Amino acid sequence: MTKGLGGLNSLQISAAVSYPGTIKALHYHFEQTDYWAPVCGMLQVVLCDLREGSKTHGLVNTLYVGALRPWRLKIPHGVGHGYKVIGQELAVLVYLTDRFYNPRDEGRLEYNHPNLNYDWEIQHK
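Given the sequence above, the corresponding structure tokens read:
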């Protein structure tokens, strides 16, 4: 494990390139924490708290991050997450994780899951 900025322990670094209108959603981890750094383009990020017993369990939040809002996101295990590329530019997302990829550590929800009740089009208008 390497010690990064702010004491972040990261084990794996990855990057994803996505084109305008692309939706990458939704998944969550049972143990892994993700650290996102969008470095190009703009992302409409959806986060939904799936953690039983959490005071924000069941809540959904939308964040707009990227070139115009260069935030870094920490996504704890148990929080569903995904994004849509908004605007006309491709987006590049660099993400660090505190564990190596393990497909058994991942759960998925469809982008239009009825319990999520999330409208990808209305959110950014």
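DSSP finds no helices and eleven strands in the chain. Try to locate this feature in the token string yourself.
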